[in-house]
Amino acid sequence: MGNQTPIYGGQALLEGVMFGGKEHTVSAIRRNDQSIEYYYAKKPKKPWMQKLKKIPFIRGNIAIIESAGIGSKHLQFASDRYDVTPGEEEDGQELSKLEMIFGVAIVGILSFLFGKFVFTLVPVFIAELFSPWVSGKYPQIFLETGIKLILLLIYLYFISLTPIIRRVFQYHGAEHKVINCYENGLELTVENVQKQSRLHYRCGSSFILFTVIVGMFIYLFFPVDPLWFRVLIRILLIPVVLGVSYEVLQFTNSLRDIPVLCYLGYPGLWLQLLTTKEPDDDMVEVSIASFKKLHEIENNPEIIAQLNHD
Fold first, then answer.
1. How high is the pLDDT of residue 237?
2. Helix, strand counts (H, E) of the chain
3. 76: nearest Cα among 150, 162, 6, 18
4. What local confidence, expressed as pLDDT, does residue 88 receive?
């Protein structure tokens, strides 16, 4: 298929996949009667947000907030229909459009911030416990970073053992395979997609790892004592770490076809060995359906006009 649809990202859902293009995001999920159901959302076009998204180091935070809000809507759609027979959805299950957009966006953003606070501050307190044996600014920061990385790997490993999260990670792998197949200029068939790698440079998993590494280098410019100041500065630097990490992710993605320099993105790819799993053919079929529906909506003016009118 022609390279008409720029893909800005994707997300694995409960029994489905979401893809995002320039104007819209589309989800496809597998219902328990084996049918495929779609959900679409138009990306918000607030002028002030569009201006901020062009400013380096700020645009990363805006992209994260936007992604959390949009992703939450698609997660809500998938979770409402997960393991529910079509036609048996509860009355009143559907919220008004305004309630859904506002509610799930806030929940998504707060959930992301809560997780970021936990993985940022818990390593600080653990490292402080070792201060009698590991003292000094640089040893403490290196220890804090090591603890943060270990906690991240342990967390991802154990949640990947649960059946439902394993399936989500399989859909995550299917999402990457479809994008890789598309970017390689191949026809989107189950056979072609399954031959692709389940790893991708632009993955959010890579971004999470970069926040750990980038955070370590940024923290080197600040003292670790007293503890209250260390905690405060970690909180205040969260937007800075996110913004710089976003730029690093974009930079490594631009180098992925350059010999030697492409290895800068490998740590993020290695982390994806935990956050993605090999999908089965049915999962790939759903991922292809989601991508094709996005392609149809983004490149068909009549469909866009219809959706915008609705």
1. 93
2. 12, 4
3. 18
4. 66
Which parts of the chain sit beneath pLDDT 50? 1-4, 91-109, 308-310
pLDDT at position 68: 74
Q: What's the DSSP call for residue 197?
A: -
Closest CA to 182 of 295, 39, 26: 295
What does the pLDDT read at residue 100? 45
The values of phi and psi at residue 28, to 5°, are: -130, 130
Q: Which amino acid is at 187?
A: E
Q: How far apart are CA 254 and CA 37, in angstroms?
A: 35
Which residue type, as a one-letter code, is found at position 12?
Answer: A
CA quadruple 31, 36, 37, 39: dihedral positive or negative?
positive
> What six digits make up the tokens of 34?
């084996």
Query: pTM here?
Result: 0.83
Give the integer Cα–Cα distance in Å for 65 and 108: 9
Are 127 and 134 contacting, i.e. CB atoms less than 8 angstroms apart? yes
Tokens, residue 140: 């403490």
